[in-house]
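Record type: ASSEMBLY
Status: queued
Input:
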Amino acid sequence: MLPDIPQDLYYLLSAVLFTIGAIGVITRRNAIVIFMCIELMLNAANLSLITSGNFLNSLDGTIFVIFIMAVAAAEAAVGLAIFVLIFRLKGTVHVDDFNLLKG
Amino acid sequence: MIGIGLGFKWFIFVVMALTAVGSSLMMVTRKNPIHSALWLIVTFFSVAVLYVTLNATFIAVAQVMVYAGAIMMLVLFVIMLIHLEWGAQWGRKKSFPKFIGGFITLILFVQILAGVYTYSDAGQHGIYTAQKLAEIGNTRAVGALLYGKYAFAFEVASILLLVGIVGAVLLARKRNEQER
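Status: finished
Output:
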């Protein structure tokens, strides 16, 4: 008889997804791909919150995830608007070219 | 998830975990941002299935609608709007800062692993067991909590979304003549 899926496996998966997202943020230079990697990291955090909530028989993790989704949606709207604006200004979304404050 | 065999649950978990890891790896390594976005949608769907195995059916549906539907549609829309389908560069050349960055992130991964395997399960157990959730319905329980205990946070989140909408419209509109 199989045991139930241990919560460590879910935490492990969450850690792997978070690390993949962080590696993407550090190594990619396209602003929109970096944005998508940040979404992946948010999703990994959501997975660990839901896991904790499920194994503690609590719904608070679910509520946190709802708020994280609301913040992610607002971030997506504003962030993509900023990318469109920077593309109009500079003609690129390559993050190494964003040196407007450098003078 | 009540009513299915444990073996089937394990099967779903393993398949969906491998799909999530594989498609997120594909997302990070693809050169074309559109391919990255489509692989990320696959990741979001497999994470949604994992939410179902954790008795969080409402969040699973919200994940598909908000992430895979709304946010990724917006991302794809912007990618196509500013024509960067082939403008991206992954950089096949070995770059020392990238190598160092990846190494530091792997150290972060080892630290998270140390946390996962040394934590003690000290949380207080709540009342929403799987049987109880199946009895009263997951969405109903979430809604009662969201509009009851967390009503103030809910209102703050709605103000945040309003600010986001106004900010996005203000940023992305075309400049008119008198501002030039």
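Annotation: Chain A has three helices and no strands.
Annotation: The first helix of chain A runs from residue 7 to 27.
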